[in-house]
């Protein structure tokens, strides 16, 4: 019998190392997982690939797509919109694919409200306490007080969701290799379910 499709969601506060771990999962499980390209209204960053990293659209285009029912979930994070296209999720669920996607907490709450739990799993990246993450975030690039306050607000909300995650990956400074092994184990188990 064909295995059921599923959505593996990756969530973790800013500075938790989510992107590093996501890249690791893509490298190790690239041929077993499907990856959905989300839409965003933010501008591409250097090195990002349109159509792969995101579909880049204007705010107006995003709103039109959203109003037409294009997204299974959408959120405004900072000054930008983000959304996962519904058709890709439907295709995965109908065709037994395992879809892997990172997202922030508002999007997760919408998916949780829409899908039964056997159709999604949440992996949470715990990068330590706020003081720790703040140092990491500010070490990457300068940031306004306002932007930092926003990240802190998201941090508090995301940490409150942590207890409901199906798996928690601890990613402390200097222990990335251990976190990579941990997420590998977790994804493998989810694939073998
Ligand atoms: P970034 O601009 O750094 O690529 O992403 C900013 C935030 O948006 C991150 O927390 C990221 O996980 C989240 N994000 C990326 N794609 C999506 C999406 O499709 N939906 C939602 N809700 N959040 C997303």
From TrEMBL:
Keywords of the record: Kinase, Transferase
All copies of domain Guanylate kinase-like, residue ranges: 5-188
Class of enzymatic activity (EC top level): transferase
Molecular function as annotated in GO: GMP kinase activity
Alphabetized SUPFAM superfamilies for the sequence: P-loop containing nucleoside triphosphate hydrolases (SSF52540)
Keyword Endoplasmic reticulum part of the UniProt annotation: no
Pfam families hit by this protein: Guanylate_kin (PF00625)
Residue stretches in coiled coil: none
Any GO CC annotation of this UniProt entry: cytosol
Classification via InterPro entries: GK/Ca_channel_bsu (IPR008145), Guanylate_kin-like_dom (IPR008144), Guanylate_kinase_CS (IPR020590), P-loop_NTPase (IPR027417)
Entry EC no(s): 2.7.4.8
PANTHER family: GUANYLATE KINASE, GUANYLATE KINASE-RELATED
Family the UniProt entry places it in: Belongs to the guanylate kinase family.
Protein name from the UniProt record: Guanylate kinase
